[in-house]
Predict the structure.
Amino acid sequence: MDTRKELALKFFASQIRLETFRQVANLGFGHLPGSLSVADLLAVLYGSKMNIRPEEPNWPERDIMVMSKGHAGPAVYSTLALKGYFPMSWLMTLNKLGTRLPSHCDRLLTPGVDMTAGSLGQGISAGLGLALAHKVKGIDAKTYIVLGDGECNEGEVWEAFLFAPQHKLDNVIVFIDRNLKQLDGTTAEVLSLGDMAVKLEAFNWHTQTIDGHDIVAISEAIDAAHAVKGRPSAIVMNTIKGAGVKELEEMEINHHIRLSSDMSERGMKVLEEAHAALAEVLREHNVTPIPTALDRE
Amino acid sequence: MYKVIYDGSREKKDHKTVFSSTMMDLIETDPDVVYLDADLMNSSGTMALWKKHPDRAFNCGICEANMMAVAAGLSLGGLKPYAHTFGPFASRRCYDQVFISQGYADNPVRIYGSDPGVCAAFNGGTHMPFEDMALMRAIPQAYVFDIADGVQFEWVLRKVKDADSGVQYIRSTRKNNAAIYAPGSEFEIGKGNILRDGTDLTIIASGIMVGDAMAVAEYLAKEGISIRVVDMFTVKPLDVDLVVKCAQETGVIVTSENHNIIGGLGEAVAAALVENYPVPLIRHGVEDRFGQVGSVDELREAYGLTPERLTELVRKALKRK
């Protein structure tokens, strides 16, 4: 990947982080750290890989992203809003009664959300069903499924890990957001998953392990996965829960957090400064950012 | 319209044959139909379907939770999935997947839960759902069908193909019931069928108990007791208008089902009556017990799912009039 593209995607990821933080800070509580850990992945998917039409969310040949860890809704909503699926102003309605943006992704409420998730383990199965439907219908689209590592406690996930290779679903990439934490503590403390890559390989998945905050690594891993035929691909992403905001990263228990106004201010400041610094680098390299809804506001 | 041919004889074709031939036809006549099973194709008669159409008949292995959410995904992808496993595994084993990925996310799937209640016979208590209708009824906008005979089974399987919303749960034996309907009979979803008119009492039955209800009505007719028999094959949405009409016209009701009296047909009818037109009601069914092994006839005896017990309850109900 050339530096210019990398910078543009980093900038997009930074925007997603900023809008995600703003959204949750506005509400005062939410699943913020687990949203921040997938921000870089969403930037690469929606910023360069996915074949989508935000103005036509139900375009039948679109690529699909299923956020199986449905509590990362805020990150998905920021991404979709920036891509123009719905007005940016909706982000301030997160999780309020009657909102189109509930805590967990809901396909019936949010344009651009293809599958409802939140009851963990189901998104991967439904995503595999969609990928199978694409095969049956002869549609050449990709399905990207994002699993939390804590989510991999669910037995259904392992049923799905068996199902996809059996049905040769090479139109699927599953990402494991391996941030090593779940609600009650570390994944090692609660229900140790061990080496996910080894396990997935043993399940006959094409498996890669990468730094989930490295834009270039994410992009290259997706390209490598697309080249695999006859079996599904998994990308284990080593990530940090709360990535981008040190204060959140360092919280011992940070699945669902309350944000005091001080914390919100500090977090926003960190992210805004990082974003401004990145904007400066983009200017230096004469890089045009990925167009977003913010350009029009 | 439907035509009643009940004369006490058994159906010639078992429901396994009805299911497998209907599924084969549906897959071969509609390119959007897909079939899923959880390692029970040999039991549901769909091995030939799997071999002939491996691109649209999927064996999911013994993974009911995954199967139900995969089916939801297939539905989301514009297909018309049918999924089969034994009744307990099609309902309680994967309830959240049916509830959330199919129901809440509005991805309709047609579920065949086979061998309901005592039909599970020698598979025993672990395989014997007396609660599947209760679970499925509690899913908003779900449809629950308790099948009386093979003619009705085939009609329902074909009818729900084009359902565009709501979990479609169909419970039926794999064997033969009493023959109730003439081939080619037509039904209406959400409408009960009056199989026999009567003025003294109405038996509202479903599934395998419909034949028993007819037998009881015939038997009591000899004593001059006039029983109306309703086949309430759509347990949800319930035909409330018909329940009220029966209450108004016959004054007392007995329900009969191969299910726990908690949460099934009897409770649905009771609620409809109490809210609209209260008359005496007795629920005939399994009285809050677990399953066990035995032949269907032995189990019917053990749980009181017999014409004799139904007759007893009818007499008791008539006294309350």
